[in-house]
Amino acid sequence: MSDVKNILLVGVGGQGTILASKILSEGLVEAGYDVKMSEIHGMSQRGGNVSTQIRYGKKVYSPIVGKGEADVIVAFEKMEALRWIEYLRDGGKMVINDFEIPSVPILMGQAEYPTEILEELSAKASVLAVKAAEIAQSLGNSKAMNIVLLGALVRAMNVEGVDWKKAVASSVKESFIELNLKAFDAGYNL
């Protein structure tokens, strides 16, 4: 059996998915793991989806996570969680931002945002729903929701021997360090 762990981070362009992935990868490297990361930006600057695949373990040969292989999926938006559920392995975990970003068809009135997404996903997997945008806003800036989700993910992963606060601080602008450290703690302590 492989010791490699598979994580997917999925969201919409502008949510900070890639920054969270880079901080996570940096921390895992610091902990001594071999880490491979792959990111896909599908029209991300126009509100399209963004996905990052991270694999870590003693020796990792590929950054690609196949269907049914993800140990954890972190969804920065609820509909993205629904789109990627087929990548979660049996017994896997989902950390989901309880947050909605309507797609273009929804904004144009051609479709409706799906209801009861969290309930549907909870029937299929272990789900931690996080109101990351609200938590980040209460700290001073809703854009820190990515770091709130990162904190929740790190707690769910239970990886020891990493100075996560150092990884966060070294990855954000100096003027945002304090906010992001508070956001990380808020997510970690959920």
From TrEMBL:
<protein>
    <submittedName>
        <fullName>Indolepyruvate oxidoreductase subunit beta</fullName>
    </submittedName>
</protein>
<dbReference type="InterPro" id="IPR019752">
    <property type="entry name" value="Pyrv/ketoisovalerate_OxRed_cat"/>
</dbReference>
<dbReference type="Pfam" id="PF01558">
    <property type="entry name" value="POR"/>
</dbReference>
<dbReference type="GO" id="GO:0016903">
    <property type="term" value="F:oxidoreductase activity, acting on the aldehyde or oxo group of donors"/>
</dbReference>
<keyword id="KW-0670">Pyruvate</keyword>
<dbReference type="InterPro" id="IPR002869">
    <property type="entry name" value="Pyrv_flavodox_OxRed_cen"/>
</dbReference>
<keyword id="KW-0560">Oxidoreductase</keyword>
<feature type="domain" description="Pyruvate/ketoisovalerate oxidoreductase catalytic">
    <location>
        <begin position="13"/>
        <end position="189"/>
    </location>
</feature>
<dbReference type="InterPro" id="IPR052198">
    <property type="entry name" value="IorB_Oxidoreductase"/>
</dbReference>
